[in-house]
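In the previous chapter we treated chains in isolation. Here, by contrast, the input contains two separate entities that must be folded as one system, with a combined length of 830 residues.
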Amino acid sequence: MLSFLGLAALLVALFGSILLTTRGISAARSERAQDKPQGEPKGQPEGEPEGEPLVDLKGPVWMLFSGAVVAMVAMQIGLLTDDFSLAYLANHHSSATPFPYDVATAWAALEGSILLWGVILAGFTVTVLRRHQLRPDRLGSAALAVMGGVAIFFFGLMVTVANPFEVCVQAAANGCIASSPWPFTAIEAPVNGPGPNPLLQNNYLMAIHPPMLYLGYVGLTVPFAYAIGALAIRYPGPEWLRRSHRSTLVAWSFLTIGIVLGGWWAYDVLSWGGYWAWDPVENASLMPWLVATAFLHSAIVQQRRNMLQAWNFVLVISAFALTILGTFLTRSGTINSVHSFTQSAIGPALLGFLVLVLVGSFTLFSTRAHLVSSSQRIESFVSREGAFLLNNLLLSIYAFIVLIGTTYPLILEAFTGTQVGVGEPFFNRLAVPLTFLLLLVMGFGPVTPWGHPAPELIWKRTRGPAVIGLAGGLATAVFVTRIGWVVLAVSLGLFVIGAIVGLLLEQSRRRAAKNRESLGSATKAVIATDPPFWAGQLSHVGVVMIAIGIAFAANLGAHLETSMVPGQTVTFAGHQITYESPFQEVHPNRTTRGARLSVTKGDRFVGDLEPAANFFGGGSAGVSTPDVLSGPRGDLYATLLNIDSGSATLTFDTSPLIWLLWLGGLVTAAGGILAVTTRRQERIRDDERQTVDV
Amino acid sequence: MAHRGFVLIGLGGVIALVMAITVTGLSNNLTYYLYPTEAVDQKADFPDGERFRLAGLVVEGSLSEVDDALHFDVTDGGATIAVVLANTPPALFDENVPVLVEGAWAADIFEADTALIRHDENYQTPVEGNYEAPDN
């Protein structure tokens, strides 16, 4: 029954997306027929025709959305009622899986994750429709057609090679051997399934990390849809950019949260004490993030100076293409990594779609090249736009290096048959200096005025922060460590924050003196004049926190591997760690064996640590679960490698200041969200802003 | 026009520099993945101390612990190589499990310092005997 319901819902969604594409195209065309002949397309700020759209796009969008939602609901009903007649559940669910992991099982494996992708894509299509209904326009119609086109691909996948609602026709003791897409074939359901990946049942973060990441990933479809829509209707200019910028901010904020949560989860669950390994799966999420970050900056240059429009098209298209490439890399089994995902028929489909996106988009782009070029020339490289250019250059190089490092093994194997891996040192050696250069530009950029500023002004605004940065670096070198990267991270970080605070103080003081108001209310007023700018600076502070957190955790951590018997005490990084006793707990879905440790520092009791290994059913071996004691100075991290009747083999690590990394990630994303929510007010205050922000 | 020429030359220079750094970075940081048959065939290309990754199945009955180091054989169905692993193996390590060990030749023994379990997207080790030999 559920299989039928699910498949029917998917078909409705697929039909809705086909309808949306065809109607969207004809809407964009017929509205053009009404349109007055266009003059110079660039110069028109709001030149969209007003009035009701001739073609109804609401119906198809709601068809797509309700189909996707019903399919997801069917999946959830299956999970909550333990319906093992569905092959997906038979292979990835178990009746012992507790809440909320049973809900999260819906996206714990391939078919389900594509279903989640489809639901989120449908949701974003609704948001595009809502803007379209505010003021019917050809750009919106064309963008909806593109959204529909992307939805055709994903729902097409779900009704063919990645059907989450296949029924099980041949059951094993614990899973499904053969399945069929036809809901009414003879079903043979197993009594129970193996449950989701044990690692996904260890931590609540895993229930939120994938949806966040997908909101970011799929959200990048929206700016892509506006870009392609604008090119298709030969209507570049400020409008597509404004909407793309806004939707990229939304997607980028989610993507930031998703990436940081992924690192946090890896750190808390994977028991190697790290959070980032330059694995293809991680790189797949970083590449679109870097390109989207570049676009968030270069979009401002186009808005303010009418430059870089062609480049902005390239960035938006690339960001979307990279999400498809990332999905291909991680889901096709082509990359020979530790994560090596199973081979599936979805790989060729994704590769074909990627080629279609790239060839289609750039063909369209090149035929419209004469429309998108900007005539504005840069006046001086020592200017805000110059800083933005440098920022874009660095971020593009960054993304390019990650792309090469990630895909090189694939390309080499395709041409020579040799299998290689690109080591972490390759990425670290290039990414670390690039990050520091970006931090340097981040310090200068926001305090550098547009146009042709006087170098004296930049010097005046940066010399104070530079002194603060140097003093902080010196203090770090004297009191903490002489490791160059750590000292540099502190110096540059303080320089960036000092420049932001200095700029805010300078503008607030000037306003306070002019209007005779208190410094506090003047500061509020300055921020209210250009909220997205200051939201962006908040994101910059978040990035600084991440950089300092990584520098400390990566360079100043201590490590110890030791065997202990109950009662024994070791001293590690200023702590006395005593192995109290082994323990064993039996849960419905797993058995946990671990070591109970107590940690003291001098006479003071710090806390208990219980690193353990979880043994799940289904014949899998133990999964180690680390335990962490967090404090303001950093984490004490304990992993159980092996436990016998008496002795336990344990590793201990310290991660100094690692909380800065998690908090910085959230601050960075918060800046993005604030920039979105305050953007509407920005447009009203447009005139005022022009006079203040120099 | 001199302005634009200057910009293009600068950009070209930056791109060339990035390519050069990337290519040298890549060639210095590549780790080869070899199956035991390939490792034996290409032994001349990998002198003692030259690191690579060896992928294969831990032979049943070959696992033993001597002086805090693990000794075991890795096979791909063709050749079999004796491996000594100095560090503690990951949690799922066992006989009949597909592994990826990183290290270098020391005469006829592969001295490894890292071992990884090759697992599928469900992070479950393959069922015993269900090991697929590489297709080459």
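Chain A is about 60% helix and 15% strand. Chain A touches chain B through 46 residues (CB under 8 Å). Compare these points with the single-chain example from earlier in the chapter.
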